[in-house]
Amino acid sequence: MKVATAEQMRGFDRRASEEFGVPSIVLMENAGRSVFETVRENLGSLEWKHVTVVAGRGNNGGDGFVVARHLHDAGARVSVFLLGKPEDVRGDARVNLDILLESGIPVPSITSADEIAVSLTHSHLVVDAIFGTGLRGEVTGLPADVIRAISAARKPTVAVDIPSGMDADTGEILGVCVRADTTVTFALPKIGLLTYPGAACVGKLVVADIGIPKCLYEEVTVEFLDDAMVASRLPARPPDAHKGTFGTAIVIAGSLGLTGAAAMASEAALRAGAGLSTLGCASSLQDVMAIKLTEVMTRGLPETDARSISSGALDPALELIEKGDSVVLGCGLGTHPDTCDFVHRLVKSVRKPMIIDADGLNALAKDTGTLEGDHGDLVLTPHPGEMARLLGTDTQAVQSNRMDVVREAASRFRCVVVLKGARTLIADPSGRVRINPTGGPGLATGGTGDVLAGTIGGLLAQGLSPLDAAICGAFIQGRAGDIAAEQLGAAGVIAGDVLRALPYALKELYEIYSG
Q1: How far apart are CA 248 and CA 237, in angstroms?
Q2: Whole-number Å distance between alpha carbons of 143 and 53
Q3: pLDDT average, residue stretch 372-388
Q4: CB-CB contact of 52 with 72 (8 Å)
Q5: Torsion-angle region of residue 44: left (phi > 0), alpha (psi -120 to 50) or beta?
């Protein structure tokens, strides 16, 4: 499903009228009608049901006026309140306000949130039509008071296009925000509706077609992943396959005290469908890893005094990688200076598809010239702190504008970048971004990033492109986290539970693919 920015949607509205002859007032009528239909579905019979519509003076308020008219005509008792002066309402919104007034429906302008308190108390449902996608800056004064009053009333609430108080592009809460039970958005979802913290205020998301020609959407560069999109990218599993069919993942990982990361990444590659997985680790750790990993082959590599992989491991590591189809680098690798030197030299030397995670990213952040120079096909999987180090900024700056940040990293380093977090983002160097809907509190535990790295590495080994491997890997690992949380409760999930749930997530998707 494609996802639009606020500016893109305004452009689509304008072009629908100017280039295709769809009058803007028709778009507003269609938008309001779609919200009305959703309200009717929520309330059932509208006869004598009391609905409060709170409208701003812009086009979002105009949509609200259309909703109010249809509710009134269907027999509901509608109370409409305007935040602003009638003379400030212009264009199509003014036309629909005048229709209400001519129909004998009062639309008082309010100057205090107290003026809607009684109506909210006696309402069966509230329609939020205060602010649309054009909101900029923190909500203060009367609008903020009204939003708080709507929240305090605790009535079922339907938001028009976007909950008022949310930044449509980032999901940032601009001071206060309506917490809707349902949001009816128009034409395409807006990015802020699908990214946190805004996504927590959306409730059920309904996407309504309001008559904008769909050919205009071709320029949209953000997509929201779904089961079918991911299932269609999965590698085939032919009936005559053998272990060599599905490739070998080489995992270069682990150090003293961080062996679990190496183990989970290596096993995740197999759980994601790779035919073989081999772990290259510090030589003194090989014995314990061989005992721990029944299905994974192990190879000891030259190590530092701190029992992490040393720069002297480059040649044997490259020899090992020659036998594989993909590389997973960095999980629990440690940050010893000699280990960091090994990471830089390996990234410069390898031309097989490689995913770099955790301490691999921390090593490269010390000198990003390696990523900015000549390298093979890479997938980077930073969490916000690692992304901040790679870009020389701070975590708050990353989290406040995740979409632009992931695009910048993918462009600067000329590779696929997976920015982890609630609603993980996957970007490629062209600027296209995919939003992953899976994964929740079940992933909020140490080690799940190692499972993700191994999952993507296993998919790379099977021949998927770096982008498709990242898309499928993020979706599958997130779904595995959801399955584990459903079975165990989110609070008790550990990374091993996510690892064990990977086959169930894959099974669901392959059933879609085969169907």
Answers
A1: 15
A2: 14
A3: 96
A4: no
A5: left
Cβ(280)–Cβ(360) below 8 Å: no
* CA 201-399-388 angle, 5° bins: 170
CA distances (Å), 295 to each of 171, 441, 458, in order? 43, 29, 14
**Widest Cα–Cα separation across the chain:** 85
Is residue 459's pLDDT more than 80?
Answer: yes
Contact 451, 445 (CB under 8 A): no
241: how many CB neighbours lie within 10 A of its CB?
12
Q: How far apart are CA 426 and CA 380, in angstroms?
A: 10
Mean pLDDT, residues 333-341: 97
Q: What is the pLDDT of residues 189-229, one digit of tens each?
A: 999 999 999 999 999 999 999 999 999 999 899 999 999 99
Task: Look at residue 490 and give its three-state secondary structure.
Answer: helix
Taking the C-alpha atoms of residue 186 and residue 408, their distance in angstroms, rounded to an integer, is 29
Neighbouring-strand partners of residue 183 = 159, 205
Per-residue model confidence as pLDDT tens digits over 57-86: 999 999 999 999 999 999 999 999 999 999
Closest CA to 224 of 247, 205, 252: 205
Q: Any idea how long the chain is?
A: 515
- Give the 3-state secondary structure of residue 21: coil
The sheet that has 248-252: what strands, in order across it? 2-3, 222-224, 433-435, 425-427, 416-419, 378-380, 354-356, 326-329, 248-252, 276-282, 297-301
For residues 495 and 261, the answer to whether their CB atoms sit within 8 Å is no
Please list, in sequence order, all residues whose beta carbon lies within 8 angstroms of the beta carbon of residue 509, skipping any fewer than 6 positions away. 227, 230, 231, 234, 475, 476, 479
